[in-house]
Amino acid sequence: MKLSTRSTYGMRALVELALTARHRPVSVASIAKRQELSVAYLEQLLHRLRQQGVVGSIRGPRGGYVLAKDPEQITMADVIRVLDGENGETMGKGSTNGSSRVGASRAAGRAHHRHAQRIAHTVWRCVHDRVAESLGAVTLQDLCNAVRTDGEDPPDHRF
Amino acid sequence: MKLSTRSTYGMRALVELALTARHRPVSVASIAKRQELSVAYLEQLLHRLRQQGVVGSIRGPRGGYVLAKDPEQITMADVIRVLDGENGETMGKGSTNGSSRVGASRAAGRAHHRHAQRIAHTVWRCVHDRVAESLGAVTLQDLCNAVRTDGEDPPDHRF
DNA sequence: TGATACCCTACCAAATTTGTCAACTAAAAG
DNA sequence: CTTTTAGTTGACAAATTTGGTAGGGTATCA
Predict the structure, then answer these.
(1) pTM recorded for the entire structure
(2) Which residues pair with A61 in a beta bridge?
(3) Tens-digit pLDDT profile for residues B50-109
(4) Measured between alpha carbons, how far is B133 from B71 in angstroms, rounded to an integer?
(5) What is the CA radius of gyration of chain B?
(6) Of A114, A146, A156, the CB nearest to B155
(7) Do residue A36 and residue B150 have CB atoms under 8 angstroms apart?
(8) Could A122 and B147 be called an inter-chain contact, meaning their C-beta atoms sit closer than 8 Å?
(9) How many CB atoms lie within 10 A of CB B27?
């Protein structure tokens, strides 16, 4: 089970936004600098988060990104869905591979297929449901709180 | 968040073992056939599961693999750790990238670094803990039960 | 002894992920 | 109204992971 850097980068950017005084846009450059990651890459991520209504953007001088919802309303599941999702849900179908020459026997293939399908589906669904549930329970607010309690360092906010 | 096919293949094989009458070894070929996946690949997976004490093996004719623990004692977290783990925990360190020319300003880099590190670590740990928790709660036994209840479809017995 | 079936290592091709570049558009400041 | 800031967008390249194959070895039983 892997947590992509994309999603963690995205969530880190959101934490940065949430930690900033409300209603004041923060530029990509600023976030990138504070979080020590590539401007160009972060741009992509924030763009997608904006398209899905997680953040809002303001253009021009003094512009930047702002949270579009309350931190309690944004979950890790949301971020992952927006940034990692889209393309492949990886399963859902095609899970039992073509098996090029494994099932050489034509006869009796049907029953096996159903059996394999059923187990594959069950395994996937049980795991997926549980994980989705816990990811949905981690909110941006939780993370902000954790950050505050975690270290004592006041995060040096100026500019 | 992605569930690798490796781990689902592995878990499917374990379900297959659990569903078989206990104490009777099942050959890789047999599992591969029933689950419709490549023998050679499955061999790798079962090999690693054996090294980590999840299954046991019996060599020679009539040999095969057997569960080494009760189905309640084997969780999805175990399988994932054995099959996907090892190499990259993906985070833990190095999460804040080199940022070639982003941090052009040499001064004040330290404080930023600490700040970035702290948030990165917090985000990662919160999410990881939750997910690990839910994966640890899904046992092989649960999956077997789900498979039994899931499909009422009598699997089309004619062959 | 020979067939069966696990043991183990190395390797590969393709997909995915991570990240960069560069040109473009919108809007506010001066 | 011009400049400058800053988001928009898409193409593209490098690195890593993934899913899978190949092929020889080794133990065990009939």
Answers:
(1) 0.86
(2) none
(3) 999 999 999 999 999 999 999 999 999 999 999 998 654 444 344 444 443 333 344 456
(4) 18
(5) 21
(6) A114
(7) no
(8) yes
(9) 15
